[in-house]
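A further point concerns the way the authors explain their paired sequence and structure data. Nothing conveys this as quickly as seeing an actual entry. An entry of this sort, consisting of the sequence and the corresponding backbone structure tokens, reads as follows:
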Amino acid sequence: MERMKEMKASQHGHYTEIMDEKEVIRVSARESRCVVHFYHTDFKRCEIMDKHLAKLAPKYFETRFFRVFVENVPWLVEKLQVKVLPCVVCFVNGVSTDRLIGFEELGNSDAFNTAVLELRLEAAGVIQKKSKNDSNPIYQVSNSHRSAGNDDDFDLDD
């Protein structure tokens, strides 16, 4: 419960903006999973990415979502070699593990679905879907059909 309070206090569940370069480094290093959007106000596609990430942030409370204006973080832009916008960098346990550059992996269209981005971020390991029945699977294997003492596999030739 205490961890949930800390996460809520640190803006989990919201898509926010961090202005200070040192704060970006501190947050991305401290959080277990982070999605960081490097943007510029002059790029329409950055605005489109913002809308999709804003939809995903409340859905994946365990992951911290935020954006940074590239002109506010010149050292980080250079260090991470951000050259094409929008650029979304995925951090897992403080390490940059993946990045999305532009919309190429999202169908190369401005009209991509949020689900496409969601699937891509899940593949990167930065978001984790929780199944409604994680502890109670729909299908279970039952051994009740086997006769007592007979553990042989079913054989179609018999």
In short: Helices lie at 2-9, 21-30, 44-56, 74-79, 114-123. The mean pLDDT is 84. Strands lie at 15-17, 33-39, 64-69, 87-92, 95-101.
